[in-house]
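Teaching assistant's notes for section 4

Start the section by putting this record on the projector. Ask students to predict, before seeing the second block, whether Lipid/polyisoprenoid-binding YceI-like domain-containing protein will look compact or extended. Collect guesses on the board.
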Amino acid sequence: METTNFNIVSANSNIDWTGRKVTGAHNGTIGIKEGHFILNDGKIKGGNIVINTASIKILDVTDPDTNAQFAGHLASDDFFSIEKFPTANFEILSVKEISNGKYYLEGNLTIKDITHLTGFETEVETNNNTLSLSGKLVIDRTKYDIKFRSGNFFKDLGDTLIYNDFDLDFTITAEASKN
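Reveal the predicted structure now:
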């Protein structure tokens, strides 16, 4: 049984986020700080992904002042408390192969020092010493003490309500360790 460690190449990996509200949606990007995947005989067996929450960017708000204000709000305690928690982490606990190259990854997602078990489907391709992984993770933000304008916690929000789920669409590139 051959075990290979693949380290995430942050510069070639990205996460697109989408948050929805009654009146529309916002979207942007967030960076991956580091991470790795462990493969046994070419199949994922474990690993982790460290997300750099301080790198969050908003792409749909083009006015610089409004964008800066919104980014400051996402960094605040209403959302990600970036000063206190500059990273989020996903630690793979189990892997189920759905079909060739398609997996269900389950693990602990930690945001703001709060951890919950979650999972998602991903497609994985390996080509020589490179691994590509893509998928979508849907997160209920209220589980991580991100309650701002949530209908679960506040009444009569009308069209200011922000939906609890947000999406992370990711494409990750990792390279085999040279050891």
